[in-house]
Design brief:
about 15% strand, Spore Coat Polysaccharide Biosynthesis Protein SpsA, Chain A, 11 strands, about 260 residues, seven-stranded mixed beta sheet, alpha/beta
Length: about 260
């Protein structure tokens, strides 16, 4: 049996799956009350950056402190889905026996792509967020990793992406990805330290990183398996759709999560 650990990024008490491969992780734990979960403020950590880095403080903690053959990241309200559907959403979450079958053929598991259809990844970010954060990231990659330029341009001009910072990877690849990702984000943090945004837009490090996973994957050309994901809570698709169109056609940036 493979040693698999998938952290569940959470900031509040919530129902959790019983499968032992899942590890609930209290992200942004430093200075907060005890939820009864492992905190991301032990060992080598960046827990205090959580208001800006979102679930990436959990990713960093896993990179520096977890030892497993495969490491993954999901969210308390968003999981990889099992093939076995159930009215009980928690019975529809991916389980270890099913995951191990995928890992016999693939070293990386990703969620099905999110598709934007009417605009590119770059333009979607431009319409919904402050584009200077992504533009500065692009500059950093071109400076630090010029060999990624073609992959970067290709991904920014796509109309779909592997979103949510969700994945499961062989430890070797996980380490490679985190080394690359955080070297970029910490440099971005250094360059953007004088910028001031509201609490929603200050979380741009997490959003930028969503766009970078596919850049890394395209350059590395690693094989991966896509599987569906499941929301544990209802999504207001009308509000989400209207906000998307307002951003696209009227320049109204997002001001909250959906």
């Amino acid at each position: 049996m493979k040693n698999i650990k998938i952290i569940i990024a959470t900031h509040k008490k919530y129902q959790m799956p019983e499968d032992d491969m899942y590890l609930p992780l209290h992200v942004g734990r430093e200075g907060k009350g005890n939820l009864g979960y492992q905190g991301d403020n032990t060992g080598d950590n960046i827990s205090l950056k959580n208001p800006y880095f979102c679930e990436l403080t959990g990713l960093y903690w896993a990179w520096k402190n977890l030892d497993a053959d495969y490491i993954g990241l999901v969210h308390y309200r968003r999981y990889f889905a099992s093939k076995n559907k159930s009215k009980n959403k928690f019975d529809s979450i991916l389980k270890i026996n099913e995951l191990e079958k995928y890992l016999n053929d693939y070293d990386i598991v990703l969620p099905k792509k999110r598709r934007y259809y009417i605009e590119t990844i770059y333009n979607h970010y431009k319409h919904t967020m402050h584009i200077e954060t992504l533009d500065e990231t692009i500059k950093i990659i071109n400076e630090k990793y010029p060999e990624y330029k073609d992959s970067l341009n290709k991904v920014m001009n796509r109309r779909s992406m592997h979103a949510f910072n969700m994945f499961i990877m062989k430890k070797e690849y996980f380490d490679e990805y985190c080394e690359w990702l955080f070297s970029i984000l910490f440099e971005l943090e250094n360059r953007m330290k004088d910028k001031e945004y509201d609490s929603f837009h200050s979380r741009f490090y997490g959003r930028v990183s969503e766009r970078l996973l596919d850049v890394w994957l395209d350059y590395k050309n690693y094989k991966f398996k896509e599987i569906p994901f499941i929301y544990m809570e209802n999504i207001n698709w009308w509000k989400k759709g209207c906000s998307f169109l307002k951003a696209k056609f009227f320049g109204k940036k997002y001001d909250s999560s959906f």
